[in-house]
Design goal:
The complex is a heterodimer of chains A (about 220) and B (about 350). By secondary structure, chain A is mainly α. Chain A has one domain: Up-down Bundle (Methane Monooxygenase Hydroxylase, Chain G, domain 1), CATH 1.20.58.220. The longest helix of chain A is centred in the N-terminal third of the chain and has 42 residues. The two termini of chain A are about 30 Å apart. Chain B has about 350 residues and is mostly helical. Chain B has one domain. Chain B is about 75% helix and about 0% strand. Chain B contains twelve helices and two strands. Chain B has a two-stranded antiparallel ribbon with strand order 1-2. In chain B, β1 and β2 form a beta hairpin. The longest helix of chain B has about 35 residues. The radius of gyration of chain B is 20 Å and the shape is globular. Chain B starts with a helix and ends in an 8-residue tail after the last helix. Classes of the chains: A mainly alpha (about 220), B mainly alpha (about 350). The interface between A and B is medium-sized, with 23 and 22 residues.
Chain lengths: ~220, ~350
């Protein structure tokens, strides 16, 4: 009985650690994405930008491995039988956000969009809001496991920031299409802005699901 | 003599088997249904503890039933148990929330009337009031435990995965305690009517002694355990236990409340302890585990704001209090008449 109890708790602790590490990856990817865009705006596809881009790819790869490990433990060890489908969905939603950070950064790498300097500060603002949104999503998700009362607080922040990204991206796109740069550049920039903004939408969708799981989890 | 005894005891054994098959779902149905515990583990633990509860703590409630009606003929005891079993079967199929405890009390009164014995109205009123206080007490305990655990979870901030590990251990412990309490409280329903007419003798082996009543309860406990092992998994899977839709923590609270109530109404030691300190104690009476569960369920529903309370279930409990003993008494009276006049059996002395 004592052995069974110890084994049960060691398995639980191992899974908790993996889940915590996965949440760390969300925050790492957000911070690295921010750094990646900043490097691109400073010096285009420079060596430093390539290095940061590679870091982001590695984070995404590590997060995928963690996700698979969590999925495997959730189902093979039967630790939270009635909530494992919810936890699995949450982890997959967070993973989509990490993937999107990597994809958008890679899009900068491949397409090398020409961005006039007058838009730098607004793109930085947009990236700041999107990464804040993802970080708050990660904290809300982490709270789901430890302190349900905090989930609502951080979810509200995600909703607020998502709305802010809509406004910022709208203003940015309007200003781009009002400018004299070639239409091809306008469309390219508009697509990239949509892709960045889309990350906040993904975070919002993830929070919508999280709030439903929170109601289900509350005793 | 032994063969005849076991033939007459068969109705009690059948009652025990059906008790195990049905009431075990209240103890570990959620844990098994939500895959928190394997059926084999739960059934094994429950079987052992239901027998322990019956043998070591079943005396008090049986004494109360004996005081209500001292059924002194084996054939009479057989028919009392069979009448209770038939009443439960009949009323359950008509959709009422029926308790074996209420059916057996009704059947004993039926025997009293048939045999021309006086019914002790003081004991009867104690028993009937316990039927009312059982779901009420279970509800109060459930509400208090619910708020205590909610408070604890808010302040301890245990990780969800560790929390589930604790709940899993809690469900195993509560399955053991619940089974012990069920055995202690409900063995009277199964074997109580045979106590007076039992031809068994005390048994001793290397200083280990079982009284004749304990041997009777051991047999009854084994019949309950056989119901748990052979049929309770089907009850859990097919009856559609409403407990299964709850979170494991809520389920634990409900099983905990039910077990505490059954234990309070069964423990002679606890009764003596409370009385020695001048505190009020509860009578030792067999109560319904299903009604205790429903009381806890309603209590938590009210604690959550009253939206989830199934008031039809409350009406079913109240209807069960009135209908079950009356029907059981009538069935027993009529059956005793046939047993005495058609089969020429002595049903009372």
């Amino acid at each position: 009985m004592f052995h069974v109890k110890l084994n049960l708790f060691s398995k639980a602790k191992a899974l908790e650690s993996k889940i915590d590490m996965f949440h760390d990856k969300v925050i790492d990817s957000a911070m690295t994405f921010k750094k990646s865009v900043r490097e691109y705006l400073n010096a285009g596809r420079s060596d430093e930008f390539k290095k940061v881009n590679k870091q982001l790819r590695q984070i995404e790869h590590d997060a995928d491995q963690l996700r698979r490990d969590i999925e495997n433990r959730l189902y093979s060890q039967n630790l939270i039988p009635d909530l494992r489908a919810n936890v699995l969905e949450m982890v997959e939603n967070l993973d989509r956000v990490i993937n999107r950070f990597d994809e958008v950064s890679y899009q900068f790498y491949i397409e090398q969009p020409e961005i006039p300097e007058i838009y730098f500060s607004r793109i930085t603002d947009l990236v700041e809001q999107v990464t804040d949104c993802a970080e708050n999503m990660s904290i809300a998700s982490r709270s789901f496991f430890r302190d349900l009362s905090l989930v609502r607080d951080y979810s509200q922040k995600v909703y607020f920031l998502e709305h802010e990204t809509d406004l910022t991206s709208g203003r940015l796109k309007k200003s781009i299409f009002d400018s004299d740069i070639p239409l091809a550049n306008k469309l390219q920039l508009s697509t990239i802005i949509d892709e960045i903004e889309n990350i906040a939408d993904l975070a919002e969708d993830s929070i919508d699901r999280l709030l439903i799981f929170t109601i289900k989890r509350d005793i | 003599m032994d063969a005849i005894f076991f033939l007459f005891l068969s109705s009690g054994l059948f009652l025990g088997w059906s008790l195990g098959a049905n009431d075990a779902a209240n103890i570990f149905g959620t844990a098994v249904g939500s895959r928190m515990i394997k059926f084999r583990t739960a059934a094994g633990i429950a079987s052992v503890f239901v027998i322990l509860g019956a043998v070591y703590a079943g005396g008090g409630t049986s004494q109360t039933l004996v005081s209500l009606g001292e059924i002194n003929a084996l054939a009479g005891a057989f028919m009392v148990a069979l009448s209770a079993a038939l009443t439960v079967y009949w009323l359950v199929s008509s959709g009422l929330l029926v308790s074996t405890s209420q059916a057996i009390v009704g059947a004993i009164i039926g025997w009293n009337i048939f045999a021309g014995k006086d019914t002790d109205w003081g004991i009867l009123s104690t028993i009937v009031s316990s039927w009312i206080s059982c779901p009420l007490l279970s509800g109060v305990i459930a509400v208090m435990t619910y708020f205590a655990i909610k408070h604890l979870l808010r302040h301890c901030r245990v990780h969800l995965v560790s929390q589930y590990s604790w709940v899993r251990i809690g469900l195993v412990v509560i399955a053991a305690f619940g089974a012990y309490a069920l055995g202690a409280n409900n063995i009277a329903n199964v074997m109580g009517v045979f106590v007076e007419s039992s031809p068994l003798h005390d048994w001793s082996f290397h200083g280990f002694t079982l009284s004749k009543v304990q041997i009777l309860f051991l047999i009854g406990g084994i019949s309950i355990a056989s119901g748990i092992v052979t049929y309770s998994h089907k009850t859990i899977q097919t009856v559609g236990n409403s407990l299964m839709k709850m979170t494991p923590i809520i389920a634990w609270i409900i099983v905990f409340s039910q077990s505490v109530v059954l234990f309070l109404f069964a423990s002679q030691g606890l009764k003596n302890f409370l009385e020695s300190w001048g505190m009020p104690s509860l009578p030792l009476v067999p109560v319904s585990s299903s009604q205790a569960v429903l009381g806890a369920f309603i209590g938590i529903g009210l604690a959550k704001g009253g939206r989830d309370v199934n008031w039809l279930a409350v009406l079913k409990i109240i209807a069960g209090w009135i209908v079950t003993p009356i029907v059981s008494a009538i069935v027993c009276f009529v059956s005793l008449f046939f047993l005495e006049n058609v089969f020429n059996q002595v049903v009372y002395h």
